[in-house]
Design goal:
Elements lengths: L10 E7 L2 E8 L18 E11 L5 E12 L9 E6 L4 E2 L8 E2 H14 L9 E5 L16 E2 L1 H9 L4 E4 L5 E2 L13 E2 L3 E5 L2 E6 L2 E2 L7 E2 L1 H12 L5 E6 L12 H8 L5 E5 L7 E4 L2 E5 L3 E6 L2
Parallel strand pairs: 1-13, 4-21, 5-8, 8-10, 9-11, 10-12, 14-17, 15-16, 17-18, 18-20
Antiparallel strand pairs: 1-2, 3-4, 5-21, 6-7, 13-14, 19-20
Helix pairs in contact: 1-2, 3-4
Length: about 300
């Protein structure tokens, strides 16, 4: 059992100095709810830009896709940041703005952060927190649907871009060797049954999906819900999932058991992916669910 598999409550407090994380201090997870952040106040996602990429086509071969970059208004972002970029299900390849061969779509997205910041579309990376909702791998030829592979380079790319925080969860198609992100300062922080507090905002995460535990990226439903219950007890402002709850519209598919658990005491914001929603936003209890499958969304206060 690796460090991402432990179901016990864990909470990390991130102390920041001069724009970087100086200390990660483990603390006991507390049932305190930080309900003052991060609540959705906007009703629509506004388009900012898009990124063209290649993805596997249903039935074989490859096809072109477009990753939208959108903006959604919230009441607060972490102290020391001007925005939070949330994204997931980046299962494709794309050229980097710096040239060279195609790279994983997540790497290309990370490379575009500075470009878009110069254009005024995003805050500069050192003022931007990044949340990854999983499924960041693609076959290099972008012609194999559901390919599984290592996603270390995506996490490293966002860290190399100088982002204030890089956190999130792994999807059912992601492999991340233990210790692959160690040695960086600040180090990216994948979550699976744990939480961290950054800039006054508590983020908690549960990766993988419900399924056959003998297959990669899956847990039996009782075990998965137990991990979810653990992180919900920490009172997160932002809950990060790969497999999320259903929304209120028929096309907003999800796992009803997960929805029932979250609905008992919904965090202000739940971020998920795994199943694409044509309309990415839905209410759940007193909070909202934002599905970022195949999209990138900038959370800002204005």
């Amino acid at each position: 059992m690796g460090p991402l598999d432990r179901p016990g409550p864990r909470d990390a407090v991130w102390s920041r100095g001069r724009g970087s994380v100086r200390e990660i201090r483990a603390t006991a997870a507390r049932p305190t709810a930080y309900r003052r952040a991060v609540r959705v106040t906007g009703s629509e996602l506004c388009p900012l830009a898009e990124l063209t990429y290649r993805q596997a086509r249903r039935g074989g071969g490859t096809e072109s896709g477009r990753l939208p970059l959108q903006r959604l208004t919230v009441d607060r972002v972490p102290d020391g940041c001007d925005g939070v970029l949330v994204t997931g299900d980046l299962q494709g390849v794309a050229p980097s703005p710096y040239g060279g061969p195609e790279v994983l779509l997540g790497v290309a997205l990370a490379d575009h952060l500075a470009v878009w910041a110069e254009q005024g579309l995003l805050p500069p990376p050192h003022r931007l927190a990044v949340v990854l909702a999983g499924d960041l791998y693609s076959a290099p030829t972008a012609d194999v649907r559901g390919a599984t592979g290592e996603v270390t380079e995506v996490w490293l790319a966002f860290a190399a871009a100088g982002c204030a925080l890089v956190t999130g969860v792994l999807g059912n198609h992601d492999l991340l060797p233990e210790g692959a992100l160690a040695g960086l300062d600040p180090a990216p922080a994948p979550l699976d049954g744990g939480s961290l507090t950054f800039g006054g905002v508590r983020l908690a995460g549960v990766g993988r999906i419900v399924g056959d535990p003998t297959r990669p990226g899956r847990r039996a439903e009782p075990a998965h819900l137990a991990v979810l219950d653990t992180v919900l007890r920490t009172g997160p402002d932002v809950l990060i999932l790969h497999e999320g709850p259903p929304g209120r519209q028929p096309a907003q598919r999800g796992n009803p058991a997960i929805g029932e658990r979250i609905g008992r005491a919904a965090p202000p914001l739940t971020v998920c992916g795994h199943m694409h929603w044509p309309e990415p936003l839905s209410s759940l209890g007193t909070g909202h669910v934002l599905n970022v499958d195949s999209r990138a969304v900038l959370l800002r206060t204005s």
